[in-house]
Structures are given as C-alpha cells and as structure tokens.
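Thread title: Can someone regenerate the structure for this chain?

I was given the following input by a collaborator and told the matching structure tokens would be attached. They weren't. Posting the sequence so someone can regenerate them.
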Amino acid sequence: MLNKEISRRDALKGTGIAGIASLFTFGFGATGAFAEGRPDEKIIDGEKALTLLKKGNRRWVRNKPIRKSYAPAGKTLEDGQWPIAAVLGCADSRVQPDELFDIAPANLFVVRNAGNVVDDNVLGSLEYAIEHLGVQLIVALGHQACGAVKAADAFVMKGTKPGGHIDIIANEIAPAIAALPATHSIDDAVKANAIQSAKQIISRSSILEEAIASGKVKLVSGEYSLHTKAVSFNAASE
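Best answer:
Regenerated them for you:
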C-alpha cells in the first residue's frame, strides 16, 4: 500500500504557503470536524443521509424526480453549500449523482474521476467535506458498464494495457479484479472496484479512518445500474 500519510504541514511549508494551514485545520478538535455546521443547525447523520439518498433514487427509478433540496430555507447558491453526503463517483457522462439520487444543487459534495479511484486529490476533497462541510456520509459509487473497469479488466485478464495515463487508472483498479474468479463478469468487477475504493478511503487517510471508526462518518459502497436506474448498496462487511 502506498504511503499516503506524508505530513500535510510539511507539504504546505514546502510550497511556501504555510499560512493556508490555518484555513484547513485537520483533526477532530474545536476547529476540526463539523466546525462550520449548517446555518439551520440541523444535523443529518450518516444513516439519515443514506435513507434520503435511497428515497431519492427510488423517485429516479419511478421517473418521478422532484430534485429535492435539504438546504436551509431561504438560502441561495450564493449563500453557501450544505451537502448531506459526499459521493466518490465515476466521471462517466451517463452517471450524474445529483440526478440519480434526485437531489438539488448544494446538497451533494461530488468527487469524480474515471473509475472512481482513490488518489490524493480524492482524499483531500473527502477530508474537506467531512471537516469543513459537516458531511457524515461518504458513498463510493461504481456503475454498470464502466469503461475504466473494462480497461482494467482487459489489463488483468489479457495483459492489454490501455495506454497513456489511463494505465495509471487501470493499475489502481487492477487489484480488485485480480482477486476475482476468472469467470467473473464486468458487473462483478465494478462491484469489487467500488468496495476496494471504500476500503482505500479508510486505509489511505488517517483523518477519514478516524472519522469512520469513531462513528462520526458512515461509509458505504454501491453500484448504479444504467438499465434499471437503481443504486444497489453493498453490505458493510464487504
């Protein structure tokens, strides 16, 4: 496992912008997690947020979207953002978390890249979401027919490299696929990759690991079906 825990303080000093550290105070003290809070003082914990996402996805499946907002009454986008969850998703243009969870802007903190892989930028974004936006739910979301997973599958099963920087993405996904039986399907690989991403969120960030282990933040993985439009969430033990 790559060591992702290089000192953030040293990194800031190295770039000559140590003063930024005062804006991004890490840890779970008085200036740490959930320091900003919501202006309406409502607390939407991880379990409640997951329930709201499931309800929204059911509306999406039934083709009855309402783009539900949980932002404080009377607030506009210029006033701020109040996400109830953070979603690590794929950059695939067919998979828009705001749509598939039937939720309005300012209600989800979305981090996306091809294959929903976990890197330093993803970890920093998720750390920001829990520490400065009060998010208490993180979803690692894969999707049916993911091109990045297909590329990684071809690499693992046939030794075919996609080329360019896509190789980096394929290398990140590869361990999840290598652990599957040779008879696995792409859907199996998509699920394995989403579960792997969830586990890496914990193993590669001590901040996220502490928040999840303490119960302050809930972490789940799931997969979105392009065919049914439904999100299937995986058991916590997977």
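Helices lie at 8-14, 46-61, 97-100, 120-132, 147-158, 166-178, 186-203, 206-213.
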